[in-house]
Amino acid sequence: MDLSDQPDVIVFTDGACSGNPGPGGWAAILKYPGGDSAKKLSGGQSNTTNNRMELMAAIEGLRAVGDTERRRVRLVSDSEYVIKGLTEWIAGWLRNNWRRGSKAGAPPVKNDDLWKTLYALSQKHDMVYEHVRGHSGHPENEECDRLAVAAIEQYR
C-alpha cells in the first residue's frame, strides 16, 4: 500500500511526558475513512519517558485495530523516533538481533521490549507511515496531544 491508497483505518498517535523521565501519557485516535466515528484511547504511566509513551501510543492504537483480519493501516505520528524506527532502523535491529550494531558487545536497542511488540503488531497489517509536524495545527495530532497530556494528570 502506498499513501495514495485508501486505508481501512487511520491511527493517529502521540505521547507526552512531564519530565523525562517522569509521569507520562499516550493517546491514539482511530478513524475509519467513509465513516463518521472515531475511537479515542489514552493511558499513561507514573515513571516513564517521552519515547516510551510515543511507542505505547502506536502499540495501543494498533492493538485497537485488532488482528482478526489483515487491514490497510496508516499510522500517523509526530514522533520521528517512531516513524524512523519503523521505516529506517528496524531492518538493522532485526539483522543485529535487537542490538544497535553488528559488533560483539553492541548495546541493545533502547526500549526493545516496546519495539518488539510494535513490530509484531505492525506485521499483522499492510502498513504505511506518515510523519506530521507536532503542534502545527493538525487536528487529530492536536487532539492526541490533549488526551496524552490529560492522561498524565492521574500520575501527578
**Count of the separate structural domains:** 1
User: Tell me, what is the CATH class?
Assistant: Alpha Beta
Structural class: alpha/beta
Helix content: 25-40%
Mean pLDDT: 95
Shape summary: globular
Query: Which homologous superfamily in CATH is the superfamily?
Result: Ribonuclease H-like superfamily/Ribonuclease H
CATH topology: Nucleotidyltransferase, domain 5
Distance between the termini: 42 Å
Q: Measured on Cα atoms, how large is the radius of gyration?
A: 15 Å
Tally the helices: 4
Order of H and E elements = EEEHEHHEH
How is the biggest beta sheet arranged? 5 strands, mixed
Task: Characterise the protein shown here.
- With about 160 residues, this protein is α/β, with parallel strands linked by helices.
- It is about 35% helix and about 25% strand.
- It has one domain: 2-Layer Sandwich (Nucleotidyltransferase, domain 5).
- A 5-stranded mixed sheet has the order 3-2-1-4-5, sandwiched between helices.
- Helix 1 runs parallel beside helix 3.
- The radius of gyration is 15 Å and the shape is globular.
- The N and C termini lie far apart (about 40 Å).
